[in-house]
Amino acid sequence: MKLIKNIAIISILTAGVSCEKTENIVPDFPCTKEINNHPNAAKYQKLMERLLQIGIPGVTMTVITPEGTFSKTGGKADIKNNISLSPCHTMRVGSVTKIFTSVAILKLQDEGKLNIDDKINKYLPSTITDKLPNGNDATIKQLLRHQSGIPEYSTISNNLLISNYSIKRQSAAEIISNILEKKAVFSAGKGQEYSNTNYILLGMILKSISGKSANEVLKEKIISPLDLQNTFVSNEIPSSLSRAYNDIHDKGLMVDRTEIENNAVGGEDILDGGIISNSFDLATFLHALTSGQILSPKAFAQMKEFITITQDLGDLTHIKEYGLGLMKLETDHGIAIGHYGSVQSFNALLYHFPDQKVTVAIIRNGESTEIKKVFESKELFNYLFENK
């Protein structure tokens, strides 16, 4: 959304920045988690091949259907050291994290520890809410649906500071301190505009209610119960993390931008986009959520109370509505619910097609204009359903 738009500008403005500042080699992670015996394996393989053909260095993809599961990887986790991507390697998933955050909030509501119609000043100190734009008016639900009017912290200037190594892995508290005393975009509940700040604040609410870090809440409520063995929400970077690349000049030359990725996220309690995972875990999570294994029916119904998106999303015209941490897409094969995610060069998508009971998760470790165009098009989903 807004972050995705900014990244294209950042890539141009920081084209001369040296990105590979460490010599870390991504370990070879051979594992037996590849699943290639799905009846539609050949069809899904064509989608993977299409993504690799447009220049993505490495891609991990999982599809869960009533007929079974397909899970496979292709390409490289580390180009310089010729390390092939395996199903046990991980990548940053960006704003797909927002689904996890929303579920954690609704889990606390199911436990009677909050109500999403409560104002956020019930759970955050007045030292923050008195200075936060709309801090004493916005509700938890308005944060979840981007209706709070609280301004976006992830601006072009902020991302330039990340790219220039002036900002490194800020915590939630540090991020919020940067927007205090700023003006609201609109009165709480009187508009709708995507703001990553909303989900930073939701992480702070999780921490306030639980007495634990927001990261620990996600582990306790979601990651551990679902046994997501390759999902990490932590200040530490797992050794399984792939490197990240960007074809800055769109000339077929991928530049290593791993250090910028690691500066952009990874601070304490960053729940707008801090999760590291693989496609198998992401698909397992959304499949469990949509099949009623995580939330109460009432809470999941609330997640699907969508409102029309009114802001300009550029080429993402198939995103029509936003719920509680869920985007609704209109595709050639019906609606899909889930989320896109972007950090700098890592990008992910996680969607469930309720009519077909199909869940798809794809994460990639490379960016270019062409890659972005193909990956974010609604035509990408045709590979899941059409004979090609």
From TrEMBL:
Highest taxon of source: Bacteria
Keywords recorded for this protein, A-Z: Hydrolase
Entry-linked Pfam families: Beta-lactamase
N-terminal signal peptide: none
Molecular function via GO: hydrolase activity
Beta-lactamase-related domain location: 47-368
Enzyme class of the recorded protein, top EC level: hydrolase
Its EC number(s): 3.-.-.-
Protein name: Serine hydrolase domain-containing protein
Organism: Lacihabitans lacunae
